Amino acid sequence: MLFAYDEPLYRPPSEGRNLIVQATLGCSFNRCTFCSMYKSKTYQARPLDDVFAEIDFLVNRFPQADRIFLADGDALVLPTDHLASLLDYLAEKFPNLTRVSSYAMPKNLLDKSHDELSLLRDKGLKLVYMGVESGSNLILKRIIKGASQQTHVKAIEKARAANLKISATVILGLGGQADWEEHIRGTAELINQAPVTYLSTLQLTLDDASHDDFMSHQPDTFCFQDDEGILTEQELLLSLLDPAKPIIFRSNHASNCLPLAGNIPRDRDRLLGEIAASRSDEAMLRPAFLRWL
Q: How far is residue 193 CA from its own chain's centroid?
């Protein structure tokens, strides 16, 4: 059998050393204005027999794999019985398997019952990655996210009730220079209502394929944030976060101007101190040529 991923292929940075299995192709929503990841693809669920054949190929080359990421954009959109069969097959073929993960939109989680999510959790799906992007309904509407602040809250709460871990991302800069505070305050409000396991920031970066679509939904006065503005956003976000449960926080994605890592609330003061120090020491900032998605 010849094997090749259907490109382009994306995965979260933390899945960089883990095995990837393409359960779907593309993204079932694929309308977010800032994202061009799957614009070249039409969403489709891959037949289980095709996925099983690729798993058989992969297990012969990576028999010790212990973590697997289900691509593409939102594998959790698949019917529960389809996912259950896939998870059972993975568990059968990879005896060292400890975790399966995937991307998920709020709708994916809300469309499944508590029992369905618990079943998938019991079969090995332990972590889902959610692009929250913003907690501001104004910003979410502009980027055509297809979800509101409360939709995100309900989805996160539902996942937590099923004992699923959530790794959420927010995008600094989405509000531009005019609405940055609306963006950050709404985001902190969302996370404080529904704490996630992991919270990461990205910095708004648009490629040629998404730039025009993004700008067409922005006010005519929209101006991108510079690094100083991004640091101010990061500073306010960290200051406002007051989760009921500790959150593992990261801004080490390659798009960020300042890499940060810690736990909230324990490391809040240290992280704020690093932001303050970076304002007088540009060497702490990631060079522009090293930043990308």
A: 18
Count of C-beta atoms within a 10 Å radius of residue 181: 13
Task: Give residue for tokens 């927010």.
Answer: 170
| Residue-wise pLDDT tens digits, 212-227 | 999 999 999 999 999 9
Q: Is residue 178 part of a domain?
A: yes
Residue 143, domain CATH:
3.20.20.70
pLDDT digits (tens, 9 = 90+) for 9-49: 999 999 999 999 999 999 999 999 999 999 999 999 999 99
Domain annotation covers residue 4: no
DSSP result, 53-109? HHHHHHHHH-TT--EEEEESS-GGGS-HHHHHHHHHHHHHH-TT--EEEEE--HHHH
Q: How many domains is the chain partitioned into structurally?
A: 1
List 102's β-bridge partners, or say none: 70, 128
Domain range for 73 is 13-290
The Cα 83–Cα 159 span in angstroms is 16
What is the separation of C-alpha 205 from the centre of its chain, rounded to a whole number of angstroms?
15
In a domain, 3, yes or no: no
Nearest 5 degrees, angle CA 125-CA 156-CA 106?
85
Is position 216 within any domain? yes
